[in-house]
Amino acid sequence: MINQFVSHANRKVPVAFSILVTIVSLLVSYSFLRYTGYWGETDTNAFSNYIYQILASGTLVPETGIVYPNGYGYQALAVFVIEIAGLEVAQLQLIGGSLLAIWMVFPAWMLYRELTGSSVGASLATLILFVQPEFLFPIFRGTHEKFTRGLMLLGLYLLVKSFRSRDRIWHFTSLVLSFYLVTFAIITFNNLLAISFVMAIGLSLILGGFLIGLRRVDSDTSIEIVRRLAYVLVVSIIFAFLFTFYVYEPAQNNVNLMQSVFDRVSILLLDVDTVSSNPYASINTGWISVPVYFVLSLPNWLILLVSTIIWLGQSWKLFKLRDQKIVESQTLLWSFYGAFAFIGFLSIIVDLSGALASNLQHRAFPSFTMLAAPLIAYWLTTQLAEWHRSWIFRGLLMGVFSFLALVSILKATNEPLLSNKWLFHHPNEMQALYWANDHLEDRLVWIGFDERLRMALGTRLGTDQVTIEPQQYIFPSNETRDFLVSDIIRARSQRLNFSIPLTGDSLQTYDNGQVQIYHKRPVTTYQR
């Protein structure tokens, strides 16, 4: 498939593509270079434990322990890589997690070349995509998203490519079969994101029918495309149904989840009850200041604002210039962008309802950026065709991308100099945690103000192997007698202005230079 796009490109494309892969490789390697593998968070820990369970049981659906309800694709792939390469789960999750995301460059470039109609547009769109912090953050983690997003890009490429291969029956058949195979793969990785993907295809079907109604596109070609999209929609829904109710039983949890979403969104829209959910509350507490947050989020605002203006301008022309037809690639791009943008709008409503832990828009925004990037690139390469040949314009563009890449990588990795939500840990902290896990079995041990170290320990050992009962946040249980205090926890105490919940007369039971473990003095004969 890679040879296919290289054979159609000019001789400059392999060099430009190699540079593009190098740039993306440096971006996704930053978290490892910055934290040397001592970096992780909640979802990485969760998927690590799903993988531990499959390794221990030898089955995709263990009879005991935790099971990921939305799919088995990533866990199965991770187990395969671990067994073949002889890696540990933590090595794959904390180091390989981000490096595996490099593969996404290939389907992204191929799709964008089809949508923009040029190699320059494809390279520009790929760069725009990979300087989005909300896109980078999920693919840095040890979760399914680097493959789910990549498969979505690959699926759209196969779909668009099949529209242009109707006169070559065998080529067309191979593309269609590959698309359905990729679609089922997306479902196995994450059923919910797959449903969102299918919904977007359905919405693009409606928008395509709208263009036919305006007679703004070639009727015969467009009618065939719309008919194909209808087939895709029906078959994809059948795949999702079979997977949920017959292939992977834990996915039936999604049925109850959708019911909850429907109920809460109804409450929000009909205003029949008060829903206390604010997905934007973390802005004030998650970063050292609100201006810093907005600077780091600048790539998000730019892609949202610029793509919206471009799409609305195209939409206005559809109504105003009814006698002017638009080309097929522009039709597909306009329809797909509108569909994914609407999904993003719905995610904001669902988040305000509090139905999915107030983070659905963070899941939907990366999908939106995947179509916003080629829309902007197409406009730049067509409307500014003369400008992009100027060295001044290229230099300015390079400066803009360098700045956006810098702020994106800082936000995507929660840079501790700017963020109050630290995701890194130190080797000495892990050494102390291992000691506590061996010597303080079944005891309540305070390990910090949030889940940072608990996630690190669970990722490296597996929750089933954790013998202590980690306590976190500002006020631990009154029964907590042991406290782990590191230089990093002391620094966080000053940053957050929280006091470490430890009395001055506590006994020091462990010390490795940077981390100490203290035990509260007994005050009654029943304490130890």
Structure overview:
With 528 residues, the chain is mainly α. Helices cover 66% and strands 4% of the residues. A five-stranded mixed beta sheet has the order 2-1-3-5-4. The longest helix is centred in the middle third of the chain and has 29 residues, at 219-247. It is globular and about 85 Å long. The protein starts with a helix and ends in a 9-residue tail after the last strand.
Strand neighbour order, sheet with most strands:
2-1-3-5-4
Q: What level of helicity do the residues show?
A: 55-70%
Q: Please count the helical segments.
A: 22
Strand content: under 5%
**Order of helical and strand elements:** HHHHHHHHHHHHHHHHHHHHEHEEHEE
Largest sheet: 5 strands, mixed
Q: What is the average per-residue confidence, as pLDDT, rounded to a whole number?
A: 83
Structural class: mainly alpha
Low-confidence stretches: 1-10, 272-276
* Rg measurement, Å: 25 Å
Head-to-tail CA distance between termini: 66 Å
- How many E-type strands? 5
Shape: globular
Q: Summarize this, please?
A:
The chain is mainly alpha-helical and 528 residues long. 66% of the residues lie in helices and 4% in strands.
List the helices and strands and how they pair.
Elements: H1 2-7, H2 13-35, H3 42-57, H4 73-85, H5 89-99, H6 105-116, H7 119-129, H8 133-140, H9 145-163, H10 169-189, H11 191-214, H12 219-247, H13 253-270, H14 282-286, H15 290-296, H16 298-320, H17 328-353, H18 360-383, H19 391-412, H20 427-439, E1 444-446, H21 452-461, E2 469-471, E3 482-486, H22 487-496, E4 507-511, E5 515-519
Parallel strand pairs: 1-2, 1-3
Antiparallel strand pairs: 3-5, 4-5
Helix pairs in contact: 2-5, 2-7, 3-4, 3-5, 3-21, 6-7, 6-9, 6-18, 7-18, 8-18, 8-19, 9-10, 10-11, 10-12, 11-12, 11-17, 13-17, 16-18, 17-18
